[in-house]
Amino acid sequence: MSHPDPDLLRTYITILDTGSFTAAARKVHRTQSAVSMQMRRLESLLGSELFERASRKVKLTPDGEIFLDHARRILRQYDDALSALNQDDLGSEITIGVPDDYALTFLPEILDRLIQVFPLLRLTIVCEPSRRLGNLINEGSIDIALLTEGEGICGGVVLHREEIVWVTSARHKAHERNPVPLAVFHSGDVYRRSAIQYLEEHGRHARIVVSSLGFVGINAALEAGIAVAVIARSNVRPGLRILTPAEGFPQLPRLGVILQRSEREPNTLLDHVVEHIVTQQYTFANGELDGATTTSRRR
User: Fold this and answer.
1) 91-107 average pLDDT score
2) Domain extent for 235
3) Residues 94, 273: contact at Cβ < 8 Å?
């Protein structure tokens, strides 16, 4: 029996984690036919069939079930071995930029997984609005940024699609006032535009009572019961409640969380860190990671 290439194992695990060959192909940046060929190659190397081809859904054979746990362990050991051989790189510093609401939801698990794989990595976290982070990426001042789709961002990888909801205090009635008192992010923010636009389209008027550069200010206004806000569902905290179309607050579109990286100079460690974030399967608070997809290249 020949030893399978780690890329074959990674694709195999991704198929099982995403539940389909199509979703796995997007995550590993290959065509569906290429992924199918990889699995045929893996089965040939192992001398066993791993998938039940008659099933319409992804279903493992008994041999496939047995091999799955071994494949995960082999990959973990492989990554650990690479880490042990690259101690100098692991001691390098990487700067990650995120809006503060993402820092509360998406970032902790990403950091936890990164340090497990790159234990000597030094991280600097910069919390700024998405537009500012886009500028910092272009300037080369930060290495990685998690940005909100719709903020004039071009290119990158969509890590997650987040449901956007109307919220207010569960103990107050700010949503019943006319015009609707809003707590919004900075001028030009996509959440702010969506809130005003959707209310106007449904015949309601809005009045901005609080404007904040960060989520902390928005959350304070919500907890005080003085405003309604549009935020990511994963940021809905105890004491807040989601408003419904029946209450006059229309359903909002889902927005992508985009990863961008600096391209100022070649950086092997940064390449590995970005690949790790993109290919991992994360669960973020109330939402789950969709298959990562690549958008058009940044202009």
Assistant:
1) 86
2) 164-247
3) yes
CA-to-CA dists, residue 161 to 30, 31, 266, 271, 278, angstroms: 21, 22, 29, 23, 14
Contact of 258 with 245, CB cutoff 8 Å? no
How far apart are alpha carbons 213 and 99 in whole angstroms? Answer: 9
Is the pLDDT at 5 greater than 50, yes or no? yes
DSSP output for 269-284: HHHHHHHHHHHS--EE
- This prediction has a pTM of 0.63
Q: Does residue 179 have a cis bond before it (omega within 30 degrees)?
A: yes
Q: Within 13 A of 85's CA, how many CA atoms are on the CB side?
A: 6
Q: Write down the residue that tokens 């008659």 correspond to.
A: 54
Residue 1 lies in a domain: no
Lowest mean pLDDT among 3-7, 151-155, 187-191: 151-155
- Give 233's contacts (C-beta < 8 A, 6+ positions apart): 162, 163, 164, 165, 242, 286, 287
**CA dihedral of residues 206, 208, 214, 219 (deg, nearest 10):** -70
Q: What is the dihedral of CA 5, 11, 16, 19, to 10 degrees?
A: -160
Q: In sequence order, what DSSP letters do the residues of 46-83 get, joined into one string? A: HTS--B-TT-SS--B-HHHHHHHHHHHHHHHHHHHHHH
**pLDDT one-digit tens code per residue, 165-187:** 999 999 999 999 989 999 998 86
Query: Is 112 within the bounds of a domain?
Result: yes
| 8-state DSSP, 256 | E
For residue 183, the domain's CATH number is 3.40.190.10
